[in-house]
Amino acid sequence: MKISNRLAVASLLAASVWSTAALASPKKPFIKEGIWRGVFTISESEVPFNFELKGKDPEHAVFTLLNGSRRDEFHVKRIGDDSLFIKMNTYDAALVARIASDGKITGEYRSLVPNFRGNALPFTAEYGKSYRFAEPGTANPPAYDLSGKWDLKIYSKEATPNRIGLLKQNGNKLTGVILSVVGDSRELEGTVQGDEFVLSGFTGPSPIYIKGKINDDKSLSGELSLGIYNNIKFDGEKNAAAELPDPYKLTYLKEGYKKLDFTLPDLNGNNVSLSDEKYQGKVVIVEIIGTWCPNCTDQTSFLAPWFHKNKDRGVEAIAIGFEQKDDLEYARYTLGKLKEKYNIEYDILFGGIADKKVASEKLPALNRMMAFPTTIIIDRKGEVRQIHTGYTGEVTGTYYKEYVAKWNKDLDALLAEPIPAEKTVVASNGH
């Protein structure tokens, strides 16, 4: 017993000494505060992005991606003395990086979807470099001012509607956004050098890269890359009258349908249906989304505060999430993060795997599920009054302002309609 006790005491003393020494040994320095320039390697292309770090230690650090006037903030976690983990908020992906001895950062953009073997994107980053493509002092005079609206003809194996480019140029600096029938690219930033131009964007989801040439007739030719494999060629003509297909006419109810019907689980596994008492006599907004989808999170960032402001006017909302894994536990995590970030006060349901065909099967009254997000507005009688495909955010300027103005006008009109007599008693019960 005495020998055993002595060994125990010696072990405790040794552990105490080791623990004290470990605490006394200084941690490796955290990454420098300030502006950084990162570069992804995608196939044979270098796709730059810029970010800012504020905070002298990971407990207080904020990592901010910079794209033109747009700012997206993320939290930093230290994993080991020289490694960092930066979760891309609601997108199930992260930057995993190591601080090298020379102060540079090396790492990769990695999917966190369970059992998903997507290719990771390697990147490096250097401190103190605020430029994106062209290093200061190396710029060539631009051959043409690209400012304006561009009609972009897409070349793809499948028939693809044209896109619109809204570009602003100041000297060599180029910013802009690309609009499609499903939404927008978010803000892009780049440069015009002679008769060539490049743009990139990284806001959390996979990076976007556009490169092109200004032709002798001042038309454009180029290639747009989304992530690793999605590369499409385009030609562009400046056209102030260019327009996309009407987003209110792309998705509609099949002939013979007036109402939408579904029964899907909420994040606690309880089935929810539009026929539930909670929705009777109310105007109901159904938002079909995915946490992996940037236009969906932009739509949610609009709807969540609007609902908070208007929830006592006789309106309800439902978000149906289609996620990257057909598993309620996984959806509870991803959609739960969305609920937390945007302070969502309406019901969130799980629709299944993120697939347009699956979404069409779960919502059979629709002609087809064309895009995430799709927003459906239902009147007090339970009839579908409007379906909007995609979402165009604030960076789209007039498009966004027109969307918001129409949204408020239409919702005000629907909320002013009387509650049908047979639903009056149910609706008056509230929720």
Protein model, in words:
- With 431 residues, the chain is an alpha+beta fold.
- It has 3 domains: 34-127, Lipocalin (Beta Barrel), CATH 2.40.128.80; 148-238, Beta Barrel (Lipocalin), CATH 2.40.128; 263-428, Glutaredoxin (3-Layer(aba) Sandwich), CATH 3.40.30.
- The protein is built from 6 helices and 25 strands.
- The strands form 4 sheets. The protein has a 9-stranded antiparallel beta sheet with strand order 4-3-2-1-9-8-7-6-5, with no helix packed on it. An 8-stranded antiparallel beta barrel has the order 10-11-12-14-15-16-17-18. A 5-stranded mixed beta sheet has the order 23-22-21-24-25.
- Strand 16 (208-214) and strand 17 (220-226) form a beta hairpin.
- The longest helix has 23 residues, at 2-24.
- 37% of the residues are buried.
- Keywords: Signal.
- Pfam families: AhpC-TSA (PF00578).
- Residues 253-416 form the Thioredoxin domain.
Notable features of this structure?
single chain, 431 residues, alpha+beta, Lipocalin, Glutaredoxin, 3 domains, nine-stranded antiparallel β-sheet, eight-stranded antiparallel β-barrel, 6 helices, 25 strands, globular, disordered N terminus
